[in-house]
Amino acid sequence: MTQTPGLLALPGLILLLLAGCAGTPAPYQPRVLDDAYMRASAAYLDDNLVALPDGWTYARWQAADGTRLRWGLAQRDGASRGTVLVVPGYGGTLDIYGQVIAELMVQGYDVAGLDLRGQGGSDRMLSNPEKPYVTDYAVYAGDLAGFVDYLSGRVETPLLIYGESFGGHVALRAAGDHPDLAADGLVLIAPAVRINTAPYPAAVARSLVAVTVAAGKGEAYAPGQQDWAPWQPDLNLDNPCGTNIATIHTKDAWFAHHPEARVSNGPTNKWVLETMRSGDLLTDKTYTARIDLPVVLVTVGDERIVQTAPAQALCRDGLAQCMPVHIEEARHCLNFEAPETRQPVFRAMESLIEVR
């Protein structure tokens, strides 16, 4: 069993963490990987990466504060059901979503995508570009709402936001903060309503990051985190996010060869604290009562990254129009599991459009 610090040990642990954060960090340098991993990851991408569809084009959209966000779009030659806006999860980059984008197009949709600030091809927030950082999740929500307003005038309707994990959390905040959000529905894939703070209990983890942020260390990595490294160096094994060997290592393999796309596996103290504070809103029924869009909310049975119960409770008790979909055999990174595991999601999306 993993040991967690007791409450009596917390003050000493906090002092230790603050001491570890002291001093000026060294200038950022991307991690250099050994030759064996570089060869193996290159072969992995050659064998498994699904290219973005023909006609996919990238562009830049400027947020209210001047931050430039990368987005992309591919449209079908024939009739379309509408447009699905893919919002990747934590650290995600649109470059590796070719498989899911292709599947959505087969289902009859045009597909757009948006890299949230701090990841993918969008502007980064700190001098160390791998560190995710935000002052308030209202910033993410404003970015997404503003972009959806921009996109809605350029594509077929209905417009559905397909948010994965962290992207799903941001989609909910955009709908709650902006009741006039120019979307017709939300598809939330294992949304990170509440993150998994193991090995620390949630209250302990919150205390740790709150104290370090108050001490001026919000830009420092959360306890135990560091610059990006492959989650599972052996590309023949699964990892906590998924079981499909052919796809689950796509992000790490891409990061190995595209260091400009890297995001650390672990966030900063401020990012963790703001994620928790935003989760407070998403579990407040007076807040979620503002969200009147139809929602498909997907949870998985072998979840190791976020907490499942708060997401299921949100669908059951917090949202006026919510269709739950549970995929027992999947892990958190559903978009990188086997294609057949996503079929229940696509069926639910059809019903979501029908109710409009």
Automatic annotation (TrEMBL):
Domain (Serine aminopeptidase S33) ranges: 80-337
InterPro entries (UniProt xref): AB_hydrolase_fold, Hydrolase_4, MAG_DAG_Lipase
Domain of life: Bacteria
Protein name: Lysophospholipase
Record lineage: Bacteria, Pseudomonadati, Pseudomonadota, Alphaproteobacteria, Parvularculales
